[in-house]
């Protein structure tokens, strides 16, 4: 059964993109990626305000499952609940989508860097800070991806709907 | 087709609009009829993401309501993309009616958290919704 993986974070620009790239093998999972490798990832530090909410396709993983990223701004955990509710309304099988929240792994540097880069447009300073922050949390994203791939990622029970 | 009416909690303006659509309620209901709607004011814990099945309209389309909090713009975009990428064949229409829950309706939600105040809060919210019923009905007729 092909499952769609949807990594989501505040802006859909940094943590979700990094985790999705690790999932797809675009970034290494045995060492911390370099700044150049991170900047070469599609959609990394690229989202603009009008892109909020859009789901972006990142690629297919080794099992042929599609991987997407999405931004949810400050909706928090209710984003997954709402998306699963929409999916239930459309008679979708809840096992066919996996919504992975990467916000718990975001550190203060990523928050500040993302704000400076995306909100204020201070790309040079913002990117330097966000790259530092991403590399600080890098192995947390690797751990998250390993949990997702092994099926141990926590999810909302189906009988909630 | 699937029609989903969206408001903050999924059980106020959305239920009223959905009930009009499904023909459960008249186009000029009384306040009591609004209070007696199934799933009206059903969300007591102010939690978003609850959806309610209302019924089928005259064309056989299933009508639901869903609580989406304040994130209507973002959530409708993401949901539309989700349906597209997952190749949902049935048409799903999302109609946001959050604006018909005015400030007094929203205040009634807070009052309804207290059990003793629920009947009064729900009645007052229904009174406010009844004032907006004309525009609600006009909106759902355009779907």
Mean pLDDT of chain B: 89
Number of strands of chain B: 4
Please state the average pLDDT score of chain A. 89
Strand tally of chain A? 4
Strand order of the largest sheet of chain A: 2-3-1-4
Query: Which two chains have the most extensive interface, and how many residues on each?
Result: A-B, 31 and 27 residues
Number of helices of chain B: 6
> Could you name the ranges of chain B where pLDDT drops below 50 across 5 or more consecutive residues?
none
Radius of gyration of chain B: 15 Å
Helix/strand order of chain B, N-terminal first: EHHEEHEHHH
- What is the strand content of chain B? 15-25%
- Cα shape of chain A: globular
Largest beta-sheet characterization of chain A: 4 strands, mixed
Total of DSSP H or I helical runs spanning 4+ residues of chain A: 6
Strand order of the largest sheet of chain B: 2-3-1-4
Q: Explain this structure to me?
A:
Chain A is of the alpha/beta class. Chain A is 40% helix and 14% strand. In chain A, strand 2 and strand 3 (66-71) form a beta hairpin. In chain A, helix 4 (108-119) packs antiparallel against helix 5 (123-136). Chain A starts with a strand and ends in a 12-residue tail after the last helix. Helices cover 43% and strands 16% of the residues of chain B. In chain B, helix 1 packs across helix 6 (133-141) and helix 4 runs antiparallel to helix 5 (118-131). The longest helix of chain B has 14 residues, at 72-85. Chain A binds chain B through residues 4, 6, 52-55, 57, 66, 68, 70-73, 75, 78-79, 81-92, 96-97, 161, and chain B through 2, 4, 47-51, 64, 66, 68-69, 71, 73-79, 81-83, 85-86, 88, 90, 92.
